[in-house]
Amino acid sequence: MAKAFFRLQKFLRRTQFLLFFLTAAYLMAGSLLLLQRTRLVMQQGSRGTPSNQALPVPEQMSRVGILEPRTLQGPGPRLLVRMEALQEPALEQRHSPHWLMSRNSELRQLRRRWFHRFTSDQEPLQTAGFTAMKHTAEHKGTYMGCFSHDSRERTLKGAVFYDLRKMTVAHCQEACAERAYSYAGLAYGAECYCGNALPAAAARPEECNMECRGQRGSLCGGVNRLSVYSGEQLRTAARTRRNVIYRGCFRAPENLTDTFPASLIQPNLTVEMCSEFCSKKEFPLAVIRGQECYCGYPTGRFSLREGTAGPRCSGARNASSAAGGQYCLVYQTPVQDTRCTDRKFLTTKSKVFVALSSFPGAGNTWARHLIEHATGYYTGSYYFDGALYNKGFKGEKDHWRSRRTICVKTHESGKTEIEMFDSAILLIRNPYKSLMAEFNRKYAGHLGYATDRTWKSKEWPDFVNSYASWWASHVLEWLKYGKRLLVVHYEDLKQSLIPKLKEMVEFLNVTVTEDRLLCVENNRDGNFKRSGAKQKNFEPFTQEMKDLINRYILTVDEALRGRNFSGLPREYVPR
C-alpha cells in the first residue's frame, strides 16, 4: 500500500512540474507573438508604398487571371488615362500583381487591429434626421401609461430608432417631436417608437418594468410592452426646427382623391399648414394644388421621378399660385415613410451564403440600409460594430456565419475569406472618395469629419500609401476568387437607385413590391449619412498621390473588363 502511495505521489510531482513548464512556455510564446505583431504594426505605420511606384503592365496581368489588354473589351466607357503613360522601363518583380496582393496580406493584421479597436475608440454618434440633443434627467410631457406592443401590428408606427446604450425618455420624446409626432413610446429599455395615436390595448402598469438604458429610475417599457409619453409641448416647440423639404413640381395624377388617402381644402393655404396637416396624419408627402392639400406616399401612380420645370412651375413655392390644375407642388414632411421599416431575421437558415463586400468608405453601411429596408431582412457583419448595433443594425450582434441574415458585410480580401462565401455583391466606389470617407471615419466616427490638422499631418500620406493598394487588391482578389459576383458601383447606385437596387434584390433571390422600393427611395439616406460635404480650403491629394491612385484605377478597370464586367465610371480619374 505504501509503495503504491509513493508512486502516486511521485507521479503528481512530475505532473505539477510538467504543467508549470507548459504554462511558462505558453506565456513566452504569447509574448513573442505580441512583440512580433507590434513590430509589424510599427513597420506598416512608418513604411508606405513609394509614391512613384509603378503598377503592373498588362502583359503581367495574366499571372493573376487578368486577360491580355487586346482581349479586354467591355461596354463601359474607357478611362482617360493612357496605358503608355503608366508603363515604366525596367519594371521590377515587386511591381507585379503578386506583390500588390502579398503586400496587402501583410496589411491585414494592421487593418484588423484598426477595425476591432473601432468600437472602443468610437465617438458618440447622432442619428441622421434627428437634431443632436442634450439629454435631461427629467422628461417633459405626461406619462400616458403602459400598453401592449406588437411589433407586427404597431400603433405607434411612425419613426423608430434605437440606442442600446444611452436611451432616455427625454431623448425619445424630443426625437419624436422633431418628427412631428405627439406620442413617444419606449420598449425593451432602448427602443423608441413614435406616433399620433395611443395604442388600443392597455397593459398592467407593473408590466412596464424595464429601466431606460441611459437613465436610472425611468420607465422604458418592457418585453412587448410600451411606456407611452405625450410630447405635445415639445411638439409645439419643435415646429420651428423641423425640416420641410421641397421635392419639386410634378404633373398631378388624374384622380388625386384615389391617389392620396387624406386631403384638405383651405383658403389661403400655406406650405406650413399643409405640412402640419399631413404630419398629424402620419404621411411623408404633402402635395399642394392651389388651395387643395393632399397627403400620401410615393406610389406607382405618383413616383416623383419626372419633375417639371419652367414657366409652369415658376411660382411653385408659393401655394397660392400653384401651377393650375395640371401640376402640383410636393414637399417632404418630417414624418418617416414606414412602409419599409419592418425588418427581421430569416426564419430558416439561408442556403446561399452571400457577402456584401467593399473597401472601407465605399458605402457598405448605406448599402446595408437599402438592402434591409428593401428586403425586410437584417444584414450581418464579419465584424462587430457597437455603434451600428446601437442604432438599429441588429445583425451586427448575430454571428456572421449564422446564416440568419440576408447577406454579410465584409472588408476582407484574402483567398480563404472569399472562398467561404457562395456569392457576393462587390461594391466599388471612387478611391478618392473612399479614402477620404474612411479617413474621416477612422479619426471622427461614422458622421464626423477629421480636423484640418489631422489631414495635414503625416497620418494622411501614410494612410493613402497603405490603403490605396488595399482598394485595388480588394477588387482584384474578389474578381479572382469570388464564385458568383454582382459588381455594383456606388456612383451608379446613387444616381439610379431603384434599378440598381432591383438588381441587388434579385441577386439575393428576394421579391419586393414597387411600393416598398419607392419607400426605400423616400428613406434613402438612412442613419449614417454625413451632413453634406465639408469643403476644405486645400487639396488633400498631392500629385504623387494622384499618380499612385490613378495607376491602381487603371489596373482595376482592366481587371473588370477581363471578367466581362463594365469598366470603372469615367469620373474615377480626376480631370
Brief sketch in words of this structure:
This is WSCD1 protein. The chain has helices at 2-46, 83-86, 97-121, 169-178, 232-237, 256-259, 271-280, 364-375, 386-390, 415-419, 431-444, 452-455, 459-481, 490-495, 497-507, 514-522, 543-562; strands at 143-148, 160-162, 183-187, 191-195, 211-212, 215-219, 225-230, 245-251, 262-265, 285-289, 292-296, 307-308, 327-332, 354-358, 380-381, 408-410, 423-428, 485-489.
CATH topology of the domain at 354-529 and 539-572: Rossmann fold
Rg over C-alpha atoms, rounded to the nearest angstrom = 28 Å
Class derived from helix and strand content: alpha+beta
CATH class of the domain at 354-529 and 539-572: Alpha Beta
Helix content percent band: 25-40%
Form type = globular
Strand content: 5-15%
User: What low-confidence regions span 5 or more consecutive residues with pLDDT below 50?
Assistant: 37-96, 112-137, 319-323
GO molecular function, one term: sulfotransferase activity
Protein name: WSCD1 protein
Domain WSC: 140-232, 243-340
Pfam families: Sulfotransfer_1, WSC
